[in-house]
Specification:
Distance between the termini: 45 Å
CATH class: Alpha Beta
Oligomer: single chain
CATH architecture: 3-Layer(aba) Sandwich
Number of strands: 8
Largest sheet: 8 strands, mixed
Number of helices: 13
Number of domains: 1
Length: 317
């Protein structure tokens, strides 16, 4: 079965260079006039679907304005088991500990980094300004099995919860989030996959455009080669790595954002939501006319999309 074609390199490079121009090192506050234009410029810059962590993806240039970065905190012995914490440079005095957004990057389970610009800009500046502590986590990449990557994510969450008070965060008010492969790993943990480390309860999860809620369905239809590298050919492995299979009881609320341009993404999200809601949970599917990469890169820029994600997070925090 032929694999979907890869985008030509020149187009990817042009999109990445455009993004570098449009996302400054210091996040600026949008005005009612400039915000819609900035969002549209971001969309246009990301018109080419680049993979997270590809050679064209760039590293964020430090902490956005208004935030302080506490980098490379180890949660395990492997060099990849590190997380970054972003806190406000002007934390309000006498206020209760802040809610925490814990974010897991994508990259096909094989690449990507907690410092990639599409992870940091403009999400971090926006969420910190909204009163959150933001954590961006790395995990071991392929050839480390995906099940072990999910173990890393669970261990990172549990460690961050145990240390949250040091950063002004509230261990009991975590919202999990991830994009693409990161959304899949977060969904596995959120759905109840058994892991060696058990995090404390969290408030909710935001899953940005995963097409791997049901791995068996994904693998028995036309798919990208990256899924073969991640999931192999063993059906038992497919079941073990399927969030929809791991669901066995009601979970904290989830928001599954999907690109309406990707039929497999929204279809998988719908089926996952139907099972979760049938078990007494609350999973909402949010369709957006954005590409896979736009869903990640533009979250935090002023838009109806950002507002809807914000409203979900505020409802569970």
């Amino acid at each position: 079965m032929p694999r979907p074609p890869r985008l030509p390199c020149p187009r990817a490079l042009v999109a990445a260079l455009a993004l570098a121009v449009l996302l400054p090192a210091s996040a600026q506050s949008d005005t009612p006039t400039t915000a819609p234009r900035r969002f549209e410029r971001l969309r246009q810059a990301m018109a080419g679907d680049l993979e997270d962590g590809s050679a064209q993806d760039r590293t964020a240039r430090g902490a956005p304005r208004g935030t302080r970065l506490i980098p490379d905190i180890p949660y395990g012995p492997d060099p990849a088991q590190r997380l970054d914490v972003y806190v406000s440079t002007q934390p309000p005095a006498g206020i209760a500990p802040a809610p925490v957004v814990f974010f897991v990057h994508g990259g096909g389970w094989a690449r990507g980094d907690k410092t990639n610009a599409r992870v940091i800009d403009p999400k971090v500046a926006h969420w910190v300004e909204q009163g959150y502590v933001v954590i961006s986590a790395n995990y071991r990449m392929l050839p480390t099995p995906v099940a072990q990557q999910a173990e890393d994510v669970a261990a990172a969450i549990a460690f961050a919860q145990s240390q949250a008070g040091l950063w002004g965060g509230d261990a009991k008010r975590f919202v999990l989030a991830g994009h693409s492969a990161g959304a899949h790993l977060v969904a596995l943990v959120a759905a109840g996959m058994r892991t060696a480390t058990k995090p404390q309860p969290w408030r909710g999860a935001v899953l940005l455009d995963s097409a791997a809620f049901d791995v068996a369905t994904l693998m028995t239809h036309r798919h990208f080669g990256l899924y073969d590298r991640a999931f192999g050919s063993d059906r038992a492995t497919w079941a073990a790595l399927s969030p929809i299979v791991q669901l066995a009881r009601a979970t904290p609320p989830m928001l599954a954002v999907c690109s309406s341009r990707r039929q497999e993404s929204c279809g998988q999200a719908d089926r996952f939501a139907a099972k979760a809601n049938g078990l007494g949970g609350s999973v909402r599917v949010l369709r957006e006319d954005l590409s896979h990469i736009e869903i990640n890169a533009t979250l935090g820029a002023a838009s109806d999309y950002t507002s809807q994600v914000d409203a979900f997070i505020a409802s569970v925090r």
